[in-house]
Amino acid sequence: MGGRQKENGSKLEGLILSDLWPYDGRMPRHTAQPGAKERTAARRLKALELRKMGMSYRAIADRLSINGETPVSFVQIFKDVRRANRETLLASKQTCDELVALERARLDMARLSIAADVAKGKLGAIDRWLKISERESKLMGLDKPFKFEDATPPTTRRLRNLTVAELQLFEALLQKVEQPLFEIEEEEMPF
Description:
This protein is mostly helical.
């Protein structure tokens, strides 16, 4: 036992609690049964497949509970499907990102191979450079049409739908509201 002991020879005096019980603040983990992770992953995939086929979470739970060794709640199935979806999306996003990175590396390699000819002003190389740049712009989404958002406030947009008579009435109401309080006659006051 490592720890601090006083020089009086007592073995327990001066020991640190962590010497007796090495608790690190986390809850103790249950030892997983062999193959538990694999069974859980298989259950998630099966639940996801059944959900894609249109089955409800309860029906999936019932089916997996009958076929499996332990009963499964529909809440657990919901969590399984959500997690499987997240993992699938993450994997496809990573794959997509990897493909984009690979394609950009290829375009950079092609651009590098013609850089000297472009610097010399060779028209064929310049044309090829522009095609490579065009391809990269499409790949990165730079050629997508830009949508301008209507900067008009929502209130103004709603006012456009009013008739001329309604706009005149609205203008008259605004003029009354903008008058100082002492100029409004008593019979005009709503309170």
